[in-house]
SsDNA binding protein (Aureobasidium pullulans), 154 residues
Amino acid sequence: MFAARSAPRILNGARAFSTSPAHSLAKMQLIGRLADQPELTPTSTGREMVRYALGVKAGPKNENGERQTSWFRVASFSDGPGRDLLLSLPKGTLMYLEADARMDTFQGQDGNNQTRLNLIQRNFETLSRPQNRQNDAESDRSAAEEPSSGIGAS
């Protein structure tokens, strides 16, 4: 005969798949291309950070065969070899990014409150570097293009 299994008990309101309490989570994973070479900039506290923008193509193709590009501003506070690698990446590099996401509200120059999504880099991986380009116009158009095969392909 088969013994009946009892259902798992949930202790003290904890989630069934974890014994730890639920925490807030705002994390993004993106695959896109660098809009420009990352820059090292000082913060108001004197700490240095690397700032860059990542272009991500998504959605259906339009009549020109192109997808809409969303641009994300990213800040990195990493040090050492990771920072050196990030600073050496050229415009158009295809990257995988894991970042913490935060919505910040601030007062703009016109006096109105504005809200902006801020991404703080946690991890990144270089997927491919751009091919040598004949001219900058072609490079500008392809800065956020995804490869035709492999990760990020459509």
Q: What stands out?
A: The domain at 27-142 is CATH 2.40.50.140 (OB fold (Dihydrolipoamide Acetyltransferase, E2P)). The chain has a mean pLDDT of 80. The longest helix spans residues 81-88.
